Every structure is written in C-alpha cells, then in structure tokens.
Amino acid sequence: MGPIDDHIKKHLDILFVGFNPSLRSGETGYHFANPNNRFWTILHRAGLTDRKLHPSEGEQLVDMGYGLTNIVARPTKAAEDITKEEYEEGKEILKEKIARYEPAFVCFVGKGVYQQYSGRKQVPWGLQEMSVVPGVYDFVAPSSSGLVRIKLDDIVAIYKELSRLLEVYKEKGKEGVEEWK
After folding, report:
1. pTM as predicted
2. Which SS3 state, helix, strand or coil, does residue 128 take?
C-alpha cells in the first residue's frame, strides 16, 4: 500500500494538510476515505463546498481552489504509528511543497500536524500570528477524525472562520488578513 496522490496546483486558495493517509485511504487512493472521518461533512457545513463531496471526488477540490496533501505520505492505522524520522522528513518536504505551490492559506487538519510541522508547542486554533513559509498564511483547525472529542458543531465553527477569512482575503487581499489578526 503506497502513498496517495496529492491534489495540488499553484496558487490555491487553501491547501489542506492532514497527518497521513488512513489505511482505508491507502486502499482506495482517496484522501479522508475512512467512513468515520468527518472531513467532507465539515467542509460542506462550513460553507467551503456547496455539497458534501464523496472521498472519490477529492480531485474536484482543485477546481474549487483547494488542495489536499499530508505531512507524512505513508498510510497507517493511526497517527501514533508515524515515526519521528517520518515527521522530520515530511515537514521538510511539506515546506518545499508550500513554497513551490504558494497557496494563500494552509489549513492544518489537526493541531498535532501543525505542531510537528512548525515545531511549536503552544498552538491556538485559527490563523497563526507567524507562518512558517513567508507569504503563506497558516491556519490550524481540529482534526476531522471521528476520534476527536470536540463537538462537530464546534469543529465546523473553526472551519467557518477559515471560510470567512478566505472571503476577506478575496475582497481585501493580504491587508484584510492582517487587519483580521
């Protein structure tokens, strides 16, 4: 079971970054394919997509201005199965990818993903004061895993903040985002 393909192109509005593919994603080749994962429901309820997409439709996100990748490419049963070496290698690859593709926002789907990527211990939800890659805004949202103990409505509220922030960015550009901070 190998890695699954990124859905990415230059200058996306949002690049979503997960920990790594689940075993189900590795089997199907689709991001967020585990039936217990709420990613597609969250995107729809937050107003980022006009309907709930099926994991097999993930490639369509690129046409909507969104992309998908992971900090670690190897599928595992759980994030705890990722090694320190995989995170170290993955964060360097991810930094290069973000610098090359230059999305407006990178949404880290899980606080732990961002902690591994940034090396920061204290990480609030939402827009981060300082980004790792200059010129790209870092946004931290809860994991969409069904194992997360945050109410779905509370998770959706954080993703709605990202949706509103994207609207501000499209209306006012980087100045609008800086005012948001």
Report:
1. 0.95
2. coil
